[in-house]
Design goal:
The protein has about 290 residues and is of the alpha+beta class. About 60% of the residues lie in helices and about 15% in strands. It folds into three domains: about 90 residues, Ribosomal Protein S5, domain 2 (2-Layer Sandwich), CATH 3.30.230.10; about 40 residues, no CATH class; about 140 residues. The longest helix has about 55 residues.
């Protein structure tokens, strides 16, 4: 399965001799799946038809689905007249005439200005008939929607691979720097003792004990192993058939925890610098993971 972004857009149209349908699908980031429909009240029954077609394609994000249906004009339009409103308007003019003492009579424009006196007559829209024109439009919108998500997903994938490569190099550099850390600390300890005019034997029990304690405190071999395992797992998730967004988000937290532990245990300037760089890159990865389905 190709990596999908949670943001996308698609539009599809379809028409018959009687109806024209237009469907738009757009999505933004959300931790859970949300479906929101925008359509006329008389078409609300079509939501139940659209949901089964949408759900297999998304697992996270907020989808906004807009549907518009127009009737195709055919011949002369049919109008109806509300005679009650028309008579009421005429009676209102008669009362005005009596009150003002002069003759006032409504003209054609007056009747047209009152909403509802003359209105176009439309038959109720049959939902089964509407669905026959909506479904093809929805399918076209889905295809375009998925293509836009896949295109952004390919860009995100390249960004992930580049940053993961840098993290892997940093792990290797930290592992190499940690190998000679105890030896450097032992040499530093002896130098400090010599500077204080307190020369001791290399086999002195107190020195050996101090070096052993330091070696235990700054041992980051377990963290390095877990980091390597997490990075391998990250690559596996990127190739997964299932949407990896939630899993990658959790994995980023675990990777961050290991880098924090290394930074606090290593007690080495060279390692600390690499930890800062790694955490900066990881934060960029975490931001992008929020866009992944």
């Amino acid at each position: 399965m190709a990596l999908h972004s949670m943001t996308g857009f698609g539009r599809g149209t379809n028409a018959t001799e009687q109806l024209h349908a237009s469907v738009e699908i757009s999505s933004v980031n959300r931790k859970q799946l949300e479906l929101a429909f925008s359509l006329a009240r008389e078409l609300s029954g079509l939501e139940a038809c659209m949901r089964p077609l949408l759900l297999p394609h998304v697992s996270r994000g907020r989808l906004q689905v807009s549907l518009h249906i127009n009737r195709v004009a055919q011949g002369a339009a049919s109008f109806e007249v509300d005679m009650g409103l028309a008579r009421g308007l005429e009676e209102a003019y008669q009362r005005l005439s009596q009150e003002l003492g002069r003759t006032l009579a409504p003209v054609a424009a007056d009747f047209l200005q009152v909403p509802g006196i003359i209105r176009q007559q439309e038959s109720a829209l049959d939902l089964d008939e509407a669905w026959t024109v909506v479904e093809p439009a929805l399918q076209k919108a889905l295809v375009q929607f998925q293509e836009s998500r896949q295109q952004e997903g390919r860009v995100l994938l390249q960004d992930f691979l580049q940053r993961l490569g840098l993290l892997e190099r940093l792990v290797t550099e930290v592992e190499e720097a940690a190998m000679g850390r105890c030896g450097r600390q032992a040499e530093l300890l002896r130098k400090r003792l010599a500077d204080l005019d307190c020369p001791v034997s290399a086999e002195d029990e107190r020195v050996c004990k101090e070096i052993a304690l330091f070696a235990d405190r700054c041992d980051i071999s377990e963290e390095i192993t877990r980091l390597q395992s997490h990075l391998i797992k990250f690559h596996e998730y990127l190739k997964s058939e299932e949407p990896p967004g939630r899993a990658l988000d959790f994995l980023c937290q675990e990777i961050h925890r290991e880098w924090n532990t290394i930074g606090s245990k290593a007690l080495d300037a060279a390692i600390a610098q690499r930890v800062v760089v790694a955490k900066t890159e990881l934060e960029k990865i975490r931001e992008q993971v929020q866009n992944i389905e």
